[in-house]
Amino acid sequence: MKNNLGSISLLIAFIGLVLFEVLLRLDMLTHTGWRIVAAGFEAATIGGFADWFAVSALFREIPIPIIRKHTNIIAKNRAKLTEGIVDLVTNKWLSPEIISEKLNEVDLAKTILDFLQESKNQKNAIGLIQKIGLQFANDLDNPKFAEALQKILRDQFATVDLATPLGIWLEKAIKDGDHHKLWKLIIEESTAALTNPETKELLLSKLEVAAKEYAEKGLLKKTVLFLAEKTGGIDLDLIADDLLEKAQELMNEAKTNPSHPIRAKFDDWLLEFAHQLATGDEKSVSIIQNLKDRLMQHVEEEKLVQTFLLKSKETLTTQLQNTETPMMQFLITNLNRMLSDLKEDKATQVKINVWIRETVSDLLVKFHSEIGNMVRNSMMKLNNKELVEQIEEKVGGDLQYIRLNGAIVGGLVGIIIALLKLL
């Protein structure tokens, strides 16, 4: 009904004109007032036709000689229309200043926190994290990724200066006595190793080799060793036990006495080595460099990176399967705790708001032309017919009121003119 309003008003005006003109011609209506009414319908018809032409000329071509070139205005001027809309959107409605002004009116941090604390949204966020995590895990065993990661590690490890910070840390640790716990651990492990039967077997085999090598140094030494073994003068098993026992006593003494000569001697050597590392001594630094090279060579030869990535893939895939796994429970718990803390931390919310606004403002300035490009590209995708149909669909109904008003105003003006003529 709304889209036909202009046509209905024009039809009424035209019917009224014809009806009253016929009645006046047949002298069925003779009063002067009826001529004024007829003049009103005549002017309404003219106004209605004029506005019909004006509205129709916007959307389609009207085949009237001479003036037809001034019809189908939207299609013929779509380039100007497009650039006008682009300018209006980018520089008026969605200018960086307008958007920034609107952003300043919104508490973005609070809005985001409220959004994430809703169970439905939080569930969706967790699901998205799981999806991204699984996609990442699926690609972990990609040979190219392993090769790239190994290259990054090799390049970074090669450029890292381990010697200087290691020397500074080691020197400070020894001077502060922090290494005594390490000493205790080493001594305890060494003592435990001395009581291991395998250690005795190893020591006994070495003693047997030493005795054999001693006997091979001459006939006299061989004879003396033979007689000693036969008479019980030399008992390699007993010697091994005594050596291990003395070694354990030595370890126990060193364990309880930080100033023990063995520990003191080793501390002095280690302190000197740490100082040399810290001061860049070439020989000491080369030791660390060789260790770095051997470590990377071992990593590459044993394919430790590939193995690590493969195991990480299996672990991540298992942990991301559902929200009940330890990793997901840890993630959810810490996410809720972080959201609760942020909810109460107004200062941090202010910082987040400032950061978001500054970031969005920078992006708007940098990519603001993309808004216009998006509008322009959307309009360029439409052919003339589609463009006209879309515009007419949105504003065609409202334009019918122009035609209605044209008929009404035309009729009123016609009546006024007729009255003035009569007067």
Q: Structural class given helices, strands, pairing?
A: mainly alpha
Number of DSSP E strands:
0
Main beta-sheet annotation = none
Low-confidence stretches: none
The amount of helix comes to: over 70%
Shape: rod-shaped
Sheet-strand content, in percent, reads: under 5%
- Element order, helices and strands? HHHHHHHHHHHHHHHHHHHH
The DSSP helix count reads 20
Average pLDDT level: 80
Radius of gyration: 48 Å
Throw out a few tags for this protein.
423 residues, mainly alpha, 20 helices
What does this structure look like?
The chain is mainly alpha-helical and 423 residues long. The protein is 83% helix and 0% strand. It has helices at 5-25, 32-59, 73-76, 78-93, 96-104, 108-117, 119-138, 143-159, 163-176, 180-194, 197-215, 219-231, 236-256, 261-278, 282-301, 304-319, 326-344, 346-367, 369-380, 384-422. The protein is rod-shaped and about 170 Å long. The two termini are 40 Å apart. The mean pLDDT is 80.
Describe the secondary structure blueprint for this structure.
Layout: H1 5-25, H2 32-59, H3 73-76, H4 78-93, H5 96-104, H6 108-117, H7 119-138, H8 143-159, H9 163-176, H10 180-194, H11 197-215, H12 219-231, H13 236-256, H14 261-278, H15 282-301, H16 304-319, H17 326-344, H18 346-367, H19 369-380, H20 384-422
Please summarize what this structure is.
This protein has 423 residues and is mainly alpha-helical.
